[in-house]
Write a structure and sequence with these properties.
- The structure holds 2 protein chains of 2 kinds.
- Chain A is an alpha+beta fold.
- Chain A has one domain (47-217): 2-Layer Sandwich (Muramoyl-pentapeptide Carboxypeptidase, domain 2).
- Chain A has a 4-stranded antiparallel β-sheet with strand order 4-5-7-6. Chain A has a 3-stranded antiparallel β-sheet with strand order 1-2-3.
- Chain A has helices at 4-7, 20-23, 46-60, 64-91, 100-113, 153-167, 193-196, 199-204, 209-217, and strands spanning 25-27, 32-34, 40-41, 118-122, 131-136, 171-177, 186-192.
- In chain A, α3 packs antiparallel against α4 and α4 (64-91) crosses α6 (153-167).
- Chain A starts with a helix and ends with a helix.
- Helix content of chain A is 45%, strand content 15%.
- Chain B has 6 helices and no strands.
- Chain B has helices spanning 3-10, 19-61, 67-90, 93-107, 110-131, 134-152.
- In chain B, α3 (67-90) packs across α5.
- Chain B has one domain: Phycocyanins (Globin-like, Orthogonal Bundle), CATH 1.10.490.
- The chains are: A alpha+beta, B mainly alpha.
- The A-B interface holds A 1-5, 7-8, 13, 15-16, 19, 21-22, 99, 101-102, 105, 109 and B 46-47, 50-51, 54-55, 58, 67, 70-71, 74-75, 78-79, 82-83, 99-100, 103-104, 106-107, 109.
Amino acid sequence: MISVADLLRESRIPANYFDFAAYLRGDLDLGLLENRRGDRLIAIPHTLVTALYKGLGQETGQAARLVLMNCGIWWGKNFYTRFTESLEEYYGAPLAEMSMGIFIECLKECWTTHGWGALDFEPAHQSRGLLVITTKNSPYGIQIKGDRRPSCFLEAGILTSFFSRLSGQDLLAVQTTCESLGDPQNTFILGLTKRLEICEALLSEGLSHEAVLQRLLN
Amino acid sequence: MNSQLQELLNRAQERYLTSQDLKQFEEYVDSLPDRLGLYRLLRDQEVTLLQRVADQAEVELKDRVSLETLEEGMKNLILVLRYGAMAMLLDDESFLKQRLLAWLERVLPIQQMRQVNEVLYRLLNQELKKYLTARQQTLLMPLITTAQVTLIY
């Protein structure tokens, strides 16, 4: 028998944790923006991201992409911890018991609410060990002069460490299309690092996303 | 407060509100006692009202769906009624649509829940019609219908 009073015993029935209106808070007198848990948020101007890319490019040249990727990886580790803690706290269940559907939707919603663009999953090749993730309106796809390669290094990094921690395996996110190159979206192929190591060479040869994906699947 | 009224607040720096604008405010303010009354009723009767829905739904569905599915359906119904009550108080349908329904639509297995939701919403409508005056029904029912349409069809 169902008892409504029992269902209501919890102080709240969880809905959308990253609901923009409930998620974003702040103490404007102190100059602080916060999320609903009280973690600090800051709005980074797009020009600052551009400046970071440019400054790093000038100082470190080709190494800039590696530095940014590593920053992304470090960010992703912390992001994973905060993200899963928030969800476990809000939904009142350990991650392992949470439905994959809700987890994925939360990640998409989290991305949007933070203004990182619109993230989506293409699960078509998941059964063969490859996950394709796309983002649109990324703040990190910035064309670096003279470079014809995708440039969402921070995103590639965050996805790499986020999904590595989620799966407990050593995964890598390789970007194959980029808004900064005129593509309609940014595409990342996620898979085991060993399997994806070849991508760097394939992309240098100028292979398209589809071609890279086919080579990985064959 | 609905988005039209919000928009008026943002115009404070531009100009005084026109008589037409103020009329919108007045209409909303005039409707507030009714809205508050209905909100209090829904709040105070939440458990009683929804328990009646749950009891009848259990009888109707007992051989067809698991208790877990029915419980899941009831939890979502509780949410819809809570967000619906707030949307009614604010006269803002988007409060329900954007902040709850858009989310439920994405995370619920709509197909699997259809059978349960059809029964739950039919029973909820029946119960609400018993509890609410005609005026109160005008305020709340369109919101429940919006939820029903989003989550079932």
